[in-house]
Specification:
By secondary structure, the protein is mainly beta. The chain folds into two domains: 284 residues, TolB, C-terminal domain (Neuraminidase, 6 Propeller); 125 residues, Rossmann fold, CATH 3.40.50. The protein has four helices and 30 strands. The strands form seven sheets. Strands 1, 2, 3, 4, 5 and 6 form a six-stranded mixed beta sheet that branches. The chain has a four-stranded antiparallel beta sheet with strand order 9-8-7-30, with no helix packed on it. Helix 2 crosses helix 4. The longest helix has 21 residues. The radius of gyration is 24 Å and the shape is elongated.
Length: 442
């Protein structure tokens, strides 16, 4: 335990910023790959409006669109927003930009927009670099009122990618389990907790969702009754049609399934020989074979970004710890990755950053930690509060954030943190007991 605490202390103080050391993509404004990223001051103006609608309705719409765009960009933790009340000029009333005035406020980027409200809502947004004194992004889109949130997320993705060269996640979905209906069912929501949709109505226990790389299917496990006996089977649901098909119903456990990055293989935990072990099979349920033979329990598989390695939890050395196996070499034994702590669980290998996140038990609580695939650097990302646990992490598709659930304050809700644990946000509120989130692909 002393060694564990020393490792955590060292890694915490040496890892207060992102550790991506690659060169920044060309022609970008903000180097999010730098060892330390400084927040860029940004001025986001309310939109100018052309409409025959009443003023109150127009002001509410203007505020709504402003809030969505600001919340999206603020979520990245790369910007500092200067409130409109502090502007030295109103961009909506100026024919030309007075760059010297904006420099007085240390502004790097000015974002302005225009609304034309008729049968549809036409939105134009422009981003100006104050340092370069030029427009670096300008785009227009049309939408119905019901589609405004989606359109604003599209704007956010495009602006974020223009400024950073990185893919935005503002149109991604998060799958999770909740007992909001009285049963543990599968739900999805937008990355920010909006637009919650119930996918299953099995009136049963649904658990452990996992996305297909295509983003239109989700794996999950649930109990099925056969011959008057309940069995934990593996299912897949189409998120568009809501059709469910059974993938594995072998006697015993059929759970913890995950797709390979190319979508050609599913890894899952089966208890065919009494002990839970990791198996591979094709998405059509054929080709079942053992992934890593062990007389002990192996579970919670996750693939490396290139699909050549499998990471999983195993009790083969005593307490549950993380192991890695090179699946391109069938003879090679699995190598132990973690040595510290009593119980390490629910690992996930980032698809965009070569880093692993997992839940580790420390001081009788579960918290989130990250580790490199060589096992050299471990970071503590969360600290349990109120005797609660922080568990079941899942990476955002761009590797910048992690979603997880926390049982703090005698509740169970979904939270998101940045990849280094520096910023935390709760995204479910009063929606029952929310568990095991899984972040969908771009």
């Amino acid at each position: 335990m002393k060694i564990y605490n020393l490792l955590l202390a060292f890694s915490f103080f040496s890892s207060l910023s992102y550790l991506h050391l690659q060169a920044a993509p060309p022609q970008t404004q903000i180097d999010v790959y730098a060892k330390e990223v400084f927040k860029a001051p940004i001025a986001l103006s309310y939109f100018s409006v052309s409409t025959e609608k009443n003023q109150k309705e127009t002001e509410n719409l203007n505020r709504q669109l402003y809030d969505i765009l600001r919340q999206d960009l603020d979520f990245t933790n790369y910007f500092i927003f200067i409130p409109p009340e502090s502007f030295l000029e109103d961009p909506r009333k100026m024919a030309n930009i007075n760059y010297s005035l904006w420099r007085q406020l240390k502004i790097k980027y000015l974002i302005t927009g225009a609304l034309k409200i008729g049968e549809t809502i036409d939105i134009s947004i422009k981003v100006v670099s104050i340092d370069q004194e030029k427009t670096i992004y300008q785009e227009s889109k049309s939408s119905s009122k019901d589609g405004l949130r989606t359109v604003m997320h599209q704007f956010s993705n495009e602006i974020y990618e223009k400024l950073t060269g990185d893919k935005g996640i503002f149109l991604t979905k998060i799958a999770f389990i909740s007992n909001h209906s009285g049963f543990k069912e599968l739900y999805t929501m937008d990355y920010d907790g909006n637009n919650i949709e119930q996918l299953t109505r099995l009136k049963n226990i649904v658990m452990l969702p996992s996305w297909a790389p295509s983003g239109n299917k989700i794996l999950f496990s649930s109990y099925a009754t056969r011959n008057k006996r309940k069995n934990l089977d593996l299912f897949e649901i189409d998120t568009t049609t809501k059709q469910i098909r059974t993938l594995s119903k072998r006697e015993g456990l059929n759970m913890g399934a995950t797709y390979s990055p190319d979508g050609h293989t599913i890894a899952l935990t089966l208890s065919i020989n009494s002990y839970p072990n990791i198996y591979f099979m094709k998405p059509d349920s054929s080709g079942l074979h053992l992934a890593a033979a062990s007389p002990e329990s192996d579970f919670s598989p996750t693939f490396s970004p290139d699909g050549k390695k499998i990471l999983f939890v195993s009790t083969r050395s005593g307490n549950p710890h993380l192991f890695i196996k090179d699946i391109s070499q069938s003879v090679r034994e699995a190598q132990r990755l973690t040595y510290a702590g009593k119980y390490n669980a629910a690992p996930q290998w980032s698809k965009s950053a070569n880093k692993i996140v997992f839940a580790g038990q420390l001081e009788s609580h579960f918290d989130l930690f990250s580790i490199d695939p060589k096992g050299f650097v471990i970071e503590r990302l969360t600290k349990s509060l109120d005797n609660g646990h922080n568990e079941h992490p899942s990476w955002s598709p761009n590797g910048r954030h992690i979603v997880f659930y926390s049982t703090r304050s005698n509740k169970s809700d979904i939270y998101i943190i940045t990849a280094n644990g520096s910023l935390e946000k709760r995204i479910t509120h009063d929606f029952g007991k929310c568990l095991t989130p899984a972040w969908g692909p771009l």
